[in-house]
Amino acid sequence: MVDQDSPPRAAAAPRAETAARSNAARGAGLLVALAVLLAVAAASIAIGAKDIPPHEVWHGLFHYAGSDDDVVVRKLRLPRTLLGLLVGAALGVAGAAMQALTRNPLADPGLLGVNAGAAAAVVTAISFLGVTSPTAYVWCALAGAAAVSVLVYAIGGSRSATPVRLALAGTAVTALLQGWSSAVQLTDSVALDRMRFWQVGSLASADMATVRRIAPFLLVGAVLAFAAARPLNAIALGDDTARGLGARLTSTRVTVMAAITLLCGAATAACGPIVFVGLMVPHVVRGITGPDMRWILPYAAVLSPVLLLGSDVLGRLLTRPAELQVGIVTAVLGGPVFIALVRRRKTAEL
Amino acid sequence: MSAGSREAKLTTVRTARGGLSLRLDARAALVGAALLLVALAAGVVLVGTGDYAIAPGDVLRTLLGHGNPGQDFIIRQLRLPRVLVALLVGAALGMAGAAFQTVARNPLGSPDVIGFGQGSAAGALFVIVVLHGSSLAVSAGAVTGGLLTGLAVYLLAWQRGVQGYRLVLVGIGGSAILAAVNSYLLVKANFVDVARAVIWISGSLDGRDWAQVWPLLGVCAVLMPLLLAQGRDLRITEMGDDAARALGVRVERVRFTAVLCAVLLTAAATAAAGPIAFVALTAPQLARRLTRSPGVGLLPSALMGAALLVLADLAAQRAFGAGQVPVGVATGVLGGGYLLWLLVQERRAGRI
Fold it and tell me: Closest by alpha carbon to A3, among A282, A256, A247, A222?
């Protein structure tokens, strides 16, 4: 739900002036956020199991000569950081779009079972269809994510969905699909060994091929989501008002669902299920920008990778020289935020 | 569910001067008997299922003491304890679920939803992966983990009383955190531990022997009658605290006893077979629909739980081969499907 208790900012008397000023402020804020993102990305390239001094990192990035340090920077840390940027942005935008579409403050691709759908599809494909190519994984994950998002949305009650109903539908679908996934894995120990690392949600196995493979899907998904920003603003006011304002409800819903599926499916295929990023960031962003989706989406696209890469760096620092998978860090950080949200909301809104 | 024409027919049995009276629900009694029969029949088939198949007739003959020595050994030492554990665990989970749901006045108020499963999985994994403990220690770890999680979720959901949906949502959040911790422990583990852990945390009946049967039987023999004795008062509390108090029920005491018994029954079941998903959620609801009673009944739920678990184990064994897929996976799939169906139903009735 787009935050309705904050008063519409543009309603003050000298309307155009205030809007212009606050737009300038939001633009400046976005630049600051970008600077933070750059800093985190730099940290993600500079910090890792192997100590590499900053000038060597610089050398590896821009004057690649093939020394050990250069290889670590170019072949391991750079793809990992790029993948973190892409996946983080995808999850944040998908989460923001999902919360606006379902008018539900607790919507998150992980909680609503979209990731479990992608995972179940990949397991099934590995074990039964003998699929081995990573490109095929992406398509399977997309198919699974699409099927589950439609199912959860329909069972959750489509237009009249409440947070509780959606969360429960997501939990039930997740339970069902996890049962299926573990049944497959237990009868196929090779699949179990391969899947247990994927299921945690990790950026560790990133390479440039993965980045190139998922980038087109994420691009299309992001374009679709940004194109739907305006009608999503109208939908926040309720279906009838939105229709009165000239928004085409059905086509908007279809566009946003397609965007969410592309973003989450491709992100999950690349690095496993990562929960709570799509939940936390949009809430923080709404506190900064107010309820306008045209600002929320770009902010989410910049700040979510900050969270994801930050968690990844944290995971590398906490248990050096081993590392904590990023999905674990985000879940442990995000779970308390979710519980706090549940506690804060009035019962009527749940 | 309670359209006028579908109300249960009640018979009342009284002693001559009316000093003692007993309410008999003919339909509930019939359904209960049928469920018991189904559970036992499925149990007999389950005893005969495995690498060495035994016909149900031979199983019965052996159980009555007229079998040949080979079958006698297989049945009494290997298969019978497993089936008894299944029956007891199912009954314990079903009855505990009924008590939870009555106290929460909500079909979703079950240990699965409030994170008990993930919590006990976390406890068990900790013992397996970090402490490399014995199977007894694993059971203890699971029970501790489950209890701590349940308590934490309950306290976090507390804001001047616990409201049903807040409890459910906090449970979902807590489960997500614990799921991450669990997968971390799984990644850290070596391959042998992983196989053991995955089977344990999905809830399995493989390799259960008499050492698991006796303690479980003891716990059930004490707690089930205690809980059943509260059944009548527990039903009345569903009408609301004030009404129940006016009818002479000591609400707090009844509720506390019921929750305590339910928690202990769940813990005992988890210690014996691991966190088996969704039996506590589905059994009471299915039993309520079959008996067409207005609330969930303790005894029908227990019988339904036993029947469900044995049937699920039978299905898992027959579909994937003996010892391949733990029963918890089968109940997870069945229970998830049932939860979806329940959501659709509740939505049609406009309750959620």
Answer: A282
Cα gap A44→B258, rounded to integer Å: 53
CATH number at residue B236: 1.10.3470.10
Residue in A closest to B334 by C-alpha: A176
pLDDT one-digit tens code per residue, A238-254: 778 888 888 888 888 88
A205 shares contact with chain B (CB less than 8 Å): no
Residues of A in contact with B337 (CB under 8 A): 172, 176
Answer yes or no: do A342 and B169 touch at CB < 8 A. yes
Q: How far apart are CA A258 and CA A53, in angstroms?
A: 44
Q: Which of A110, A164, A325 sits opposite B169 (nearest CB)?
A: A164
Q: DSSP 3-state assignment of B25?
A: strand
Residue in chain A lying closest to B170 (CA): A339
Query: Is the residue at B35 inside a domain?
Result: yes
Q: Are B341 and B288 in contact (CB under 8 A)?
A: no
What pLDDT score was predicted for residue B306?
Answer: 93
Q: Do B199 and A186 touch (CB under 8 A)?
A: yes
**Residues written for chain A:** 350
Q: Which amino acid is at A103?
A: R
Interface residue of A112, A164, A197, A330 to substitute, partner B, most B CBs within 10 Å = A164
**Residue A228 in domain:** yes
Please report residues of A whose CB lies closer than 8 A to that of B325: 183, 186-187
Residue B25 lies in a domain: no
List pLDDT tens digits, range A300-310: 999 999 999 99
Contact pairs from chain A to chain B, CB under 8 Å: 147
The token pair that represents B241 in the structure block? 């605290």
Which string of b and e fits B167-190 if b means at least 16 CB within 10 Å?
bbbbbbbbbbbbbbbbbbbbbebe
Helix (H) or strand (E) holding A254: helix A249-271
Among the listed residues A84, A88, A137, the one whose alpha carbon sits nearest the alpha carbon of residue A264:
A88
Q: Average the pLDDT over A175-204 and give the result.
A: 73
Domain that holds residue B163: 30-45+74-348
Mean pLDDT confidence for B60-80? 80
Residue B295 is assigned to a structural domain of this protein: yes
Closest residue in A to B118 (Cα–Cα):
A175
Are the Cβ atoms of A196 and B320 closer than 8 angstroms?
no
Joined tokens for residue A101: 């579409």
The answer to the question of residue A75 being in a domain is yes
Q: Quick one: pLDDT at residue A9? A: 43
- How many domains are there within chain B? 1
Q: Do B216 and B272 contact (CB within 8 A), yes or no?
A: yes
Report, in angstroms and rounded to the nearest whole number, the Rg of chain A calculated over CA atoms: 21
Task: Determine phi and psi for B2, rounding to 5 degrees.
Answer: -105, 60
Q: Check if the beta carbon of residue A234 is closer than 8 Å to that of residue A242.
A: yes
Interatomic CA distance for residues B268 and B290, integer angstroms = 27
Is residue B54 in a domain?
Answer: no
Say if B344 is an interface residue toward chain A (CB within 8 Å).
Answer: yes
